[in-house]
């Protein structure tokens, strides 16, 4: 049995990961400061004697004995990471330093939840891991993009300088159950708007693209990455099926059978125009890993979750 630390474990992805690691027979320590996460996401795990919950901010040192660390602590929705940009940089950079220090002291293998945002507004399409990106270092997304880029730098430097066992995964847009209704990202916004009869708010002309991955596919990829030998990444983990935001809106309207209208709002600064992962490296290195959940299938599952979340307070 391994003892595994998941930072940001009460968040959307972290809570799925904690459950998966427990189901696989591990002991899990979930660390979170509840900035965007919530206890509700992991409440069903609290009775498990191999699950431990710690309220802590990763920007402060933390001492524990563990075999593996998944470093997910960081707000991921643009609305939330732009709310307190200085704190976002501190979380990405100081948080990474502390967790790398912990990994160095304990000899734990540490995986960083990096992001497709390291590619910024990409000029190369689809994005491969050897692309260095196109990031505005002083724009409103910089606190997140540059914070995550610096965290990747730190991971590589601790690997080369201190021989740390590291893994870097670049996660592309992920959605699914356990996103909070106020998350602010596009899939949850559109589903809630469609279910409550409000206008679906599209920023810009809706022709910008994203490639949406269901969280279950991501968790498989992350756990598989942690299990690899002699491979540190970075590796893209995402679904290569690309859609415009307008196509996403129409698909959600169709699946929810909603009469909501689409409302166009001004575009947001530095919004990437296109994003799609090249996943050939993941496919090669992660035992043939491939996302298996189609957008429609994944959206149906997520719509079911939000219906319960919005209209039935008793259900988790
Ligand atoms: P989320 O906001 O639901 O989860 C982040 C968690 O980190 C929350 O529980 C939050 O409370 C916690 N946290 C934030 N700052 C902290 C701090 N200083 N100390 C301790 N805990 C802190 O977001 P998510 O979608 O689950 O994202 C998880 C990770 O995956 C993030 O690192 C994010 O950058 C990365 N990621 C996510 C996506 C995506 O599409 N969901 C894409 C790329 C990368
Ligand atoms: N650290 C931590 N937990 C540990 C070990 C280290 O939080 O179990 C923090 C420590 O406070 C330090 C950071 O990780 O600030 C980086 O550690 P490292 O050993 O690389 O640097 P140093 O302590 O030499 O500054
Ligand atoms: N978006 C939108 N309406 C919303 C939320 C987001 O049109 O209510 C757009 C946003 O401008 C971007 C895309 O949807 O082009 C994805 O945004 P999200 O915040 O989900 O994640 P990002 O990939 O930008 O980090």
UniProtKB/TrEMBL annotation:
Enzyme class: lyase
Cofactor: NAD(+)
NAD(P)-binding domain: residues covered: 5-301
Pathway(s) served: Nucleotide-sugar biosynthesis; UDP-alpha-D-xylose biosynthesis; UDP-alpha-D-xylose from UDP-alpha-D-glucuronate: step 1/1
Keyword tags: Cytoplasm, Decarboxylase, Golgi apparatus, Isomerase, Lyase, Membrane, NAD, Signal-anchor, Transmembrane, Transmembrane helix
Membrane topology: Single-pass type II membrane protein
An example Gene Ontology CC term for this record: Golgi cisterna membrane
Pfam families cross-referenced by the UniProt entry: GDP_Man_Dehyd
GO biological process terms held by the UniProt record: D-xylose metabolic process; UDP-D-xylose biosynthetic process
GO molecular function: isomerase activity; NAD+ binding; UDP-glucuronate decarboxylase activity
Localization in the cell: Cytoplasm; Golgi apparatus, Golgi stack membrane
EC number: 4.1.1.35
Record-stated family: Belongs to the NAD(P)-dependent epimerase/dehydratase family. UDP-glucuronic acid decarboxylase subfamily.
Name of this protein: UDP-glucuronate decarboxylase
Gene for this chain: galE1_3
């Amino acid at each position: 049995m391994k003892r595994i630390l998941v930072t940001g474990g009460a968040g959307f992805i972290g809570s799925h990961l904690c459950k998966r690691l427990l189901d696989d027979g591990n002991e899990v320590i979930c660390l979170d400061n509840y900035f965007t996460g919530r206890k509700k996401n992991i409440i069903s795990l609290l009775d498990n004697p191999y699950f431990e919950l710690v309220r802590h901010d990763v920007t402060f040192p933390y001492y524990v004995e563990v075999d593996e660390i998944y470093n997910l602590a960081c707000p991921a929705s643009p609305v939330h990471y732009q709310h307190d940009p200085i704190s976002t940089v501190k979380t990405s950079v100081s948080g990474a330093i502390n967790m790398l220090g912990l990994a160095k002291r304990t000899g734990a293998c540490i995986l960083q939840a990096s992001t497709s945002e390291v590619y910024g507004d990409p000029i190369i399409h689809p994005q491969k891991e050897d692309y260095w990106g196109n990031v505005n270092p002083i724009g409103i997304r910089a606190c997140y993009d540059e914070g995550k880029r610096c965290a990747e730098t730190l991971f590589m430097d601790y690997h080369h300088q201190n021989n740390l066992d590291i893994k870097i995964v670049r996660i592309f847009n992920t959605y699914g159950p356990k996103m909070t209704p106020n998350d602010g990202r596009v899939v949850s916004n559109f589903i809630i708007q469609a279910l409550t009869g409000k206008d679906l708010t599209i920023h810009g002309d809706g022709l910008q693209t994203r490639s949406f991955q269901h969280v279950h596919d991501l968790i498989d990829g992350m756990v598989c990455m942690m299990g690899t030998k002699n491979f540190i990444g970075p590796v893209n983990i995402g679904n290569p099926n690309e859609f415009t935001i307008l196509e996403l809106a129409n698909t959600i309207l169709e699946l929810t059978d909603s009469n909501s209208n689409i409302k166009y709002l001004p575009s947001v600064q530095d919004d990437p125009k296109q994003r799609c992962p090249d996943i050939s490296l993941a496919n090669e290195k992660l035992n043939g890993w491939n996302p298996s959940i189609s957008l429609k299938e994944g959206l149906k599952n997520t719509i079911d979750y939000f219906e319960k979340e919005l209209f039935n307070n008793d259900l988790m």
